[in-house]
Write a structure and sequence with these properties.
Blueprint: H1 2-42, E1 75-78, H2 89-100, E2 104-106, H3 115-125, E3 129-136, E4 143-150, E5 156-163, H4 166-195, H5 213-221
Parallel strand pairs: 1-2, 1-3
Antiparallel strand pairs: 3-4, 4-5
Length: 222
């Protein structure tokens, strides 16, 4: 009888221990499951590779290109275009489009105030034509007003308007600018060259003919 009582008591103790161990395991597993999202939410962020800072577009077009032997003698100045973006993509497209056709383009000159001053600058610097303009509007509704000015007269001789966002205008300049104002630009350069001839032979003035000694002697005898 005593042996049965002891066995019953031991069994109860073991059963309670097992239940306690099982309950503890459930609590631990529940805590682990509950803590997993928290760890994911509050843990260290995943490693991200550093990104290089964006580089500005190529600006070498601003520099004058040395004239190549046998290249066109026509020289065109392209001025700053008010309203163009910060890196002047429209002006850059104009310069590149003209250079692609063999024109000697300078982007270092500044506009002046009158037709007379444009003619004087043309004579002094051998500039055949000037390109100026401005951008109005914003975004998809902006318009580039571009003009060609003759160095011989100082007056505008051609113009073109291009509308749209900046990439569209830049593409139109690349594809169509020369077809639309190329002939006027060449004509302006040629007219300027004829108006201000270069390499002209120096003028010689004849001081007179030598007087022969016989004539001098005859006058002295009289």
């Amino acid at each position: 009888m005593l042996r049965k009582s002891i066995s019953f008591w031991v069994g109860c103790r073991l059963s309670g221990a097992v239940r306690g161990w099982g309950l503890g395991l459930v609590v631990v597993l529940s805590a682990g499951v509950a803590s997993s999202p928290a760890h994911g939410a509050w843990g260290p962020p995943p490693y991200a590779e550093p990104h290089a800072a964006p580089q500005p577009p190529d600006q070498t077009w601003l520099k004058d290109v040395p004239e190549r032997p046998g290249a066109s003698k026509h020289k065109v100045a392209v001025f700053v275009i008010p309203g163009d973006d910060v890196y002047q993509p429209m002006r850059a497209a104009v310069v590149k489009a003209l250079r692609k056709k063999g024109i000697n383009v300078t982007a270092t000159l500044q506009p002046v105030d009158s037709a007379v001053q444009y003619r004087e600058m043309s004579t002094a610097l051998k500039v055949g034509a000037y390109v100026d303009g401005e951008v109005t509007g914003e975004g998809a509704h902006q318009t580039l007003h571009l003009r060609v000015r003759s160095g011989a007269t100082g007056q505008h001789v051609a113009s073109v308007n291009l509308t749209g966002p900046t990439p569209k205008i830049v593409g139109a300049i690349t594809r169509t600018l020369w077809n639309r104002v190329g002939s006027a630009t060449i004509h302006a350069c040629s007219s300027t060259s004829h108006a201000h001839p270069r390499d002209r032979e120096p003028m010689r003035i004849e001081a007179g003919t030598p007087v022969d000694d016989v004539s001098i002697a005859a006058r002295e005898a009289n």
